[in-house]
Amino acid sequence: MQPLPKAIFTARGLTKTYHMGEVEVPALRSLDLDIYQGEFVVLLGPSGSGKSTLLNILGGLDNPSSGEAFWRDHNLATANERELTEYRRDHVGFVFQFYNLISSLTVRENVALVTEIAPHPMRPEEALERVGLAHRMDHFPSQLSGGEQQRVAIARAIAKRPDVLLCDEPTGALDYETGKVVLEVIARINQEIGTTAVVITHNASIAGMADRVMRMADGRIASVEDNPHKLTPAELSW
Ligand SMILES: Nc1ncnc2c1ncn2[C@@H]1O[C@H](COP(=O)(O)OP(=O)(O)OP(=O)(O)O)[C@@H](O)[C@H]1O
Q1: What's the CA gap between 202 and 213, in Å, rounded?
Q2: If DSSP codes are grouped into helix, strand and coil, which group holds residue 149?
Q3: How far is Cα 235 from Cα 28, in angstroms, rounded to an integer?
Q4: Predicted pLDDT of residue 118
Q5: Helix, strand, or coil (residue 172)
Q6: Best residue among 14, 22, 25, 98 to mutate for probing ligand 1, ranked by most atoms within 8 Å of CB
Q7: Which of 52, 89, 45, 48 is CA-nearest to residue 71?
Q8: Which fold would CATH assign to domain 38-61+93-228?
Q9: Which positions fall inside the ABC transporter domain (predicted)?
Q10: Ligand 1 pocket: which of 28, 44, 49, 57 to mutate (most atoms <8 Å of CB)?
Q11: Interface confidence: ipTM more than 0.95
């Protein structure tokens, strides 16, 4: 018998309401979710459906208004700022649409910023090798293309060996071919290191490479589909 898969993220009744003066903006409305160890999840949904809000709460960047959000047995909903900082540092790698590299530091130094504070990091050189940029280590971000800069951002995110890689529109600023290279890197990290990956995208074709596809609507998970025939990024087209 197959062992039951283990959920690493569990959310129940997760609610987030932003207050803008007198106006309340509901971003998550009693959302339920399970994400399992090692899987590749693609999160789709229209603009404003709550994708980034959800990712930020799972990543310990924001607190919910009510409900439960667990990372294994850590309650993220009740964690204080120090606990969330430790959680992010030890367990989470983030990749955003814009790369947020420090322009005055070389590629290697950008990655080393993270490896110096992580408990069990890989060497910056190894992280850069994994994203195919070992030969650009001593270059500055401005000397790299957008796709290369995003691969540095991924190297920085994985160098601390996070349990989970949370990606918010990682290909949003990239052209077709470059976007595919970046997706290949994320897929490889997921497969080779077993890092659970959650990727937000507006591009429904990217769902083809997921183990599971979650669609958000109106602050909830509207549907979850298994993807029995996973494609490689090279096989995707849009
Ligand atoms: N800091 C904030 N203050 C007030 N309202 C916010 C804030 N962040 C998000 N919202 C609102 O919460 C709702 C969900 O936003 P969120 O960014 O999570 O959606 P999204 O699905 O990621 O959208 P997009 O695809 O456009 O990035 C939206 O109505 C948004 O306007």
Answers
A1: 12
A2: helix
A3: 33
A4: 85
A5: coil
A6: 25
A7: 89
A8: Rossmann fold (3.40.50)
A9: 9-236
A10: 49
A11: yes
Contacts of 201 (CB under 8 A, 6+ apart): 42, 43, 44, 169, 170, 171, 172, 207
Q: Is the dihedral of CA 130, 142, 52, 181 positive or negative?
A: negative
Rounded Cα distance, 94 and 56, in Å: 10
Its pTM stands at: 0.94
The pLDDT, as a whole number, for residue 4 is: 63
Cα(115) to ligand 1 centroid in Å equals 31
- What does the pLDDT read at residue 238? 82
Side-chain-side CA neighbours of 215 within 13 Å: the count stands at 10
Q: How far does the centroid of ligand 1 lie from the alpha carbon of residue 47, in Å?
A: 8
Q: Is 23 in the pocket of ligand 1 (CB under 6 A)?
A: no
Closest residue CA from atom 8 of ligand 1:
53
**Among protein residues, the one whose CA lies closest to atom 11 of ligand 1:** 27
Positions of the chain with pLDDT under 50:
none
Distance CA 45, CA 218 (A): 9
* C-beta 217 within 6 A of ligand 1: no
Q: Distance (Å, rounded) from C-alpha 39 to C-alpha 165?
A: 11
Tokens 């549907």 appear where?
223
